[in-house]
Amino acid sequence: MGKKLYHGAAYYPELWNEEVMEQDIRMMKEAGINVARIGEFAWFTMEPEEGRIDLSFFVHVIDKLYQNGIETVMCTPTPTPPIWFTHGHPERMYVDEHGTVMGHGSRQHACTNNRYFRERAAIITEHIAKAVGPLPGVIGWQIDNEFKAHVSECMCETCKGLWHEWLRERYGTVEQLNDAWGTHIWSEYYHTFEQVPQPGPAPFLHNSSLRTMYQLFSFEKIAEFSDEQAAIIRRYSDAPITHNSSVAFHVDNERLFQNLDFASFDTYVQYDNSPAYLINCDLFRNFKRGRDFWIMETSTSWSASLESYAMAHPNGYLRAEAVAAYALGAEAFCYWLWRQQRAGCEQPHGSVISAWGKPTIGYQSVLEVEQARKEIESVILSTTPAQAEVAMTYSDRSKAFLKTEPHRQLNHRGLVTSFYERILSLGIHRDVIPEGAELDGYKLLFTPFIHYLSDEYKKRAQAFVEAGGIWIVGPLSGGRTEQHTIHTDAALGQWLESLAGVETLYTYPMEGTGTQGQAFGVSAPLGLWSALFQPTEAAPVGVTDGGLAPGTAFITERRHGQGRIVMLGSMPVGEEGDVLLKKLIDHYAAEAGVTLRTDVTNGTIVAPRQGEDFTVWFVVNMDGRGGRVTLPRAGVDVLTGAEVQPGVLQMGPYEHRVVRFPN
């Protein structure tokens, strides 16, 4: 990839004739599109009959795009195996948790673990890599498309056999599995690994260990499939490889990106929920540290299928979304899709141009993005996102635990985004980091909604505290073992409670009990599944009033080494809860000496970037209401060249400003 910011779109030339392609390329150049993503659903075009593979059409397309200044991200077409693969072969198909076997059509209908699927996927991937890998227009690769977006854990016979192999490798003996899972419960004891079922149809609920481990098995297998394709591509191409993922899909993104070269994601968040958009930028920036991420798909105006549609973006929003992405570490901002599809199940989806070749309602917004891209490109390329001092840990493995044990249908993404929104609203520059991330450079670490804390994570967090960091644990963290069972040495595990200087007295659902939490000079109702503490070596910071156990601690603090560990045992809820949680975040940010924060108003963000001897603030209004921030010293408006004085900077709806400060 070159030193540029990319502005791109998904393109499906196999659906159109040469005359339409000529029109598309001309209009792409007019709109400022400099990269196209192609091939992801075109397996039939590439291999219309089993074994008859012809990539000449895509070589032609890539060359034609390149001749017109448009580079290509080439995809493998494995989400849509053709009819010759599926017809008459139910054993190759995905089976859901109810035992329903998928038929041909839509996408992700095949089992990606099926041996013959893997063989054919490897063959088509190698042919593509050989044919287009050497072409100068190919600057990157995307493996498949949105792994596990429409399906989750497959229950076919192939997966059953692989499941038993995975268990044997993980546990060694069936006796160790039985002990780990507590299978004397309800006479679930197994005599061989082959007897361990998949979590398919059952009269009530499966053993928690069985259901969670099957999800982790599925996570690992889809990542292995990705690894296989990447290894094939690397034999023929040096271009970097990614996958377009999401925190909404049934994957472990940290594991998935482990053997890929850069991270990318798809997002269709509506304009009125910008925190759900921004959290992706702050997370995917950290899956491949030191490498910019890509937004591989977002809508020019609205997303839609045959059965649903989202609200269209207001004028100005798309530009704000793009500038925020570039400022927060994106190298590319790409749309799904270029030309509206005339057939299929996503005909109503927003696009850059219509099926009949005319600009859509989002086209003007695309032109605005291109203008902004050109204005900010030089400053983005000469800077990097500033090192955050505050981090929040995100875990797809925790998503699996919560899927098994959702309490009252708790949504992991919603919980995490809501917590993140409180940090965002306080003007704190923040990272969202995977479980395996190093903690160097941070002063304050949040670990909410992570049922199981691994030994590796605990070791890093303890070292972080001992070196002077403040670690805030909870709510809903630490209460389960690696096997998704209850601790027997202490409610949250002896290690965590000993380090925190507490004994957990009770864990129970707090809603409806009338419990109020008193902390930081305010009171708020408490909710979610909660833990209440008896401090042993810690100090109580938040205490309950009323409810089932008045006078007990729900927030504690203990000094350890040079830092502190804070336990947050219950979730403050409602408007008062929002106030209390923000006070907690603000208090400990001050205690930790966090300086990389501003007084920016809610709905507007500051994305700080660092140059060789200067700092740049990208200030972007995301909510369409305008906003303001106080500039600490004089600077220069990068877009106009005018001097900017210290004091309040007013922002209009969806406006962005770029201010450069000397170090």
From TrEMBL:
Zn(2+) binds at residues 111, 154, 156, 159. The keyword Cell division does not apply. The active site is at 146 (proton donor), 297 (nucleophile). It comes from the Bacteria. Its EC number is 3.2.1.23. GO terms for cellular component: beta-galactosidase complex. One of its GO terms (biological process) is galactose metabolic process. It is an enzyme of class 3 (hydrolase). It comes from Paenibacillus rigui. Belongs to the glycosyl hydrolase 42 family. PANTHER family: BETA-GALACTOSIDASE GANA (PTHR36447), BETA-GALACTOSIDASE YESZ (PTHR36447:SF2). Substrate binds at residues 107, 145. Residues 388-594 form the Beta-galactosidase trimerisation domain. It catalyses: Hydrolysis of terminal non-reducing beta-D-galactose residues in beta-D-galactosides. Keywords: Glycosidase, Hydrolase, Metal-binding, Zinc. GO terms for molecular function: beta-galactosidase activity; metal ion binding. InterPro entries: Beta_galactosidase_C, Beta_galactosidase_Trimer, Class_I_gatase-like, GH, Glyco_hydro_42, Glyco_hydro_42_N, Glyco_hydro_b. Residues 603-660 form the Beta-galactosidase C-terminal domain. The lineage of its organism: Bacteria, Bacillati, Bacillota, Bacilli, Bacillales. Residues 11-375 form the Glycoside hydrolase family 42 N-terminal domain. Pfam families: Glyco_hydro_42 (PF02449), Glyco_hydro_42C (PF08533), Glyco_hydro_42M (PF08532). This is Beta-galactosidase.
